[in-house]
Amino acid sequence: MDAAEFRRRGKEMVDFVADYQENIEHRRVYPDVEPGYLRSMIPSEAPLEPESYEDVLRDVDRVIMPGVTHWLSPHFYAYYANSTSFPSILADLLSSGIGTIGFTWAANPACSELETVMLDWLGKMLQLPEDFLSETQGQGGGVIQGTASEATLMALLSARLKTVKCVQESDPQRSEADIISKLIAYTSEEAHSSVEKASIIGGVVIRMVPTDEHFSVRAETLEKMVAEDKATGYIPFFFCATLGTTPCCAFDKIDELGPICNAENIWMHIDAAYAGCAFICPEFRPLLNGVEFADSFSINPNKFLLVGFDCSAMWVKKSADLTRAFQMDPEYLKHEHQGSGWCNHLHQPYSTHKIHWGIPMARRFRSLKLWFVFRMYGLRGLQAFIRKHVELAKTFENLVRGDNNFEICAEVVMGLVCFRLKGSDELNKALLKQITRTGKIYLVPCKLRGRFVLRFVVCGRTTELRHIQEAWKHITELSSELLQNLFD
Ligand code: PLP
Predict the structure, then answer these.
(1) Ligand 1 atom with least separation from CA of 275
(2) CB atoms within 10 A of CB 285
(3) Fewest CB atoms less than 10 Å from the CB: which of 24, 85, 251, 360?
(4) pTM of the model
């Protein structure tokens, strides 16, 4: 494909994507295919000779589209959203088109610098304490990780190294292996599975902290567990708080947990993957009070800020905690500006060398997505988007509350409504099975206090009141049939 053909095909592809999104609500949101459907539809080996673009595109319609779950559909109410937008898609196109890889400042100055400034912009939108911003005289700053899981892992690994060094300072004879075998991390029993995974990768023990009646971790509970573990020789070193848990969007009480973590030298990371985006609205910002006690904090703009996957924003109070843990300096990464200004702040060694802030060396130009979206929506536009989703979720909650057959299972704070039919888990599983089978809307379940619960998340950029009303009508029709069969 030469530039002339790319020009033509590119325009066609933009039309294809625009048509897809404009008409997406007429598609079945959940595909009607069986596992393994694809293998028999394409050859078992890559072609030896080049094929035509027309052939490839034809197979997009024949092979790919039938197996796509349409995350951008207004009928998609599962997981937490992938909230992309047209400006974000264009920024991604530009990023792919430039094809530049920004691991050090020299590898791509614009990529390194824009990322640092965008994380400051976003940090200010969230009213983060200055400690987390890199433009101030502090030692903090932000980085874009691929996912919230990576942000949690980086925080845990940094905390692990910091604690090992700290213990060895007072007890130089103690081996690293011995210290690591005694480290203990904590997170909510409601936390995302990625926190437990981080502990497995980090080779440390993790304890799940029980939650109160609002599914929140409270100070007293954590304090008691820390005391017990210290008494048996463990070294508490890491606590991952969640703001907006995956099952029901509950909030740990970070303002009371933070002081305990600080007093016990426990690194507090806050995983606010979904809900953190809403803190750009002043009415939700109080949920972030206590962030000043945290060592690191992350949100996923790709969940609720109109930025496409992947984009997880992570801030640390002391960037040196990350860079010290992960700094490698091979000769091929050195460059002439290494020791100056942006590339080596006095307190922030290699602050724009994001390679030292994460696992991969190569990094995409993801900050372009933030820049395009922030400028084309403005803070006001993003706030309006979040408020609309919360409003629609409240409407759905009211519909559920108005029907005696159903119950609400957790407080509705943002765009997630947890609900179930009054009755057995089997009844609710049967309802979800019917919903999935018909494919008109798509939801996933969760477990709350051992009970099977349905999650309804307002996800789509184009979801309107009528979609919510249609979804509820569909759910009540299916549930009426189920209840009818039960009594027949
Ligand atoms: N943390 C929370 C609270 C989440 O809700 C999720 C996913 O929904 C994750 C972490 C995982 O996010 P990622 O896929 O970016 O790793």
Answers:
(1) 3
(2) 14
(3) 360
(4) 0.93
